[in-house]
Specification:
Structural class: alpha+beta
Order of helices and strands: HEEEHEHEHEEEHHEEHEHHHHEEH
Helix content: 25-40%
Radius of gyration: 25 Å
Strand content: 15-25%
Length: 382
């Protein structure tokens, strides 16, 4: 926490912080936080949940929190925000989240904490349905048409009330999204129906969904029969698919709100980096103390990795180079210190070396501090 109290001071108040949660699987069932829950990687293992907040503009990780593996995203948000508030307060933070965190209690909590937020609403809320119904018949007009980050969308916005609080409500309609929404929806219905007909247990996160769209008819002679609620299914396919509803208590511009929301992918891509590049798809620790230590090391490594990528991809001379290519090139640099010689002998710099040193604001010919004779030498495995 000493580290984090200093670290958060480097975060710009203008940045929107993308919040997301991932699962980290473990074979060790002795750690308290390791529980059975919804595994986002679809592995049949117990897990912890890891919440991570990342700057959408700076790509800088801000804060993380280890959560019990059997708590869903909606329930996890209260714990995460409580930890954040106890540690640094929440003044000045602007958090963006997807609908996985959305329910009435969480939104009211964020208002009560005076937290600035932008969140996607789940379509199961009556607030969402009413907002879509209000806009559906008129949203497809040319005055509402915009091209935003490669997408063609119709949008509208209005100021609504949420329990006495200001609520900027932004509604978007995308025909490409409509097709994808309908396909995902029908595939999800099909999987639920198959499990129900086999009398198998549904995953916990699918139970509310199945209760809305299916009825189980129990008869003494024929047993149970799974009946789709066709009217409700038709309502979603014809009236809800293709829509996205965002609410924000600080962003009144629907174009900017959607750009902010799209940036939440920075947190998702950060999890990919941690799991694939940093080998954090398994805990591989035996104690809670080791788990805490490993998570912190992974976080620091992610900070370094994302800063490296941010510098590379924002530099015109380097953006077409891969991160691995640059690292391998910089490994070739050597400095040899000879007793009695004032300056070390350095490897001749290539053009790429000079571009990298310039991009990272490292003086080309600055003296390189080398370990003294009585200091421990750093080996390749340290």
């Amino acid at each position: 926490m000493v580290f984090f109290r200093e670290w958060v001071r480097t975060i710009s108040e203008e940045d929107n912080l993308a919040l997301d949660i991932t699962s980290i699987s473990s074979y060790n069932q002795e750690i308290t936080a390791v529980r059975s829950g919804y595994d986002r990687d679809h592995e049949n293992l117990e897990q912890i949940n890891l919440a991570l907040m990342v700057g959408s503009k700076t790509y800088r990780p801000v804060f993380y929190c280890i959560l019990l593996g059997n708590i869903n995203d909606r329930a996890s948000l209260r714990h995460f925000l409580s930890t954040l508030d106890d540690s640094f307060g929440t003044d000045g933070y602007k958090i963006v989240m997807d609908e996985g965190f959305c329910n009435k209690a969480n939104i009211t909590l964020m208002y009560d904490m005076k937290l600035k937020f932008t969140i996607s609403l789940t379509k199961s809320l009556s607030f969402t349905s009413d907002a879509i119904d209000e806009a559906a018949d008129t949203i497809e007009s040319f005055s509402n048409y915009h091209q935003i980050i490669g997408s063609n969308v119709f949008l509208t916005t209005s100021l609504k009330d949420w329990g006495g609080h200001i609520c900027y409500t932004h509604i978007y309609y995308d025909k490409t999204k409509r097709y994808n929404d309908r396909k995902r929806f029908m595939d999800r219905l099909d999987k639920c129906r198959a499990l129900l007909e086999k009398n198998e247990t549904l995953p916990e996160f699918e139970v509310p969904f199945a209760e809305i769209y299916f009825t189980i008819d129990e008869t003494p002679k024929r047993g149970s029969k799974v009946i789709p609620n066709e009217n409700i299914i038709r309502e979603y396919r014809n009236r809800r698919a293709g829509f996205l509803v965002l609410i924000s208590n600080h962003e009144n511009d629907p174009v900017k709100a959607l750009e902010i929301y799209r940036c939440k992918e920075t947190a998702e891509s950060s999890f990919d980096d941690m799991k694939n590049d940093q080998d954090f798809n398994r805990l591989r620790v035996a104690t809670e103390q080791a788990m805490g230590g490993k998570a912190f090391i992974q976080f620091v490594a992610l900070c370094i990795s994302l800063e490296l990528k941010h510098v590379i991809y924002s530099n015109d001379d380097l953006k077409n180079r891969t991160e691995r290519e640059i690292i391998d090139e910089m490994k070739l640099l050597r400095a040899t210190k000879i007793e009695g010689r004032h300056k070390p002998i350095r490897t001749e710099l290539t053009k790429l070396h000079k571009l990298v040193l310039k991009a990272f604001l490292i003086p080309e010919y600055a003296d390189i501090e080398l370990p003294g004779a009585d200091e421990p030498q750093i080996g390749p495995d340290d």
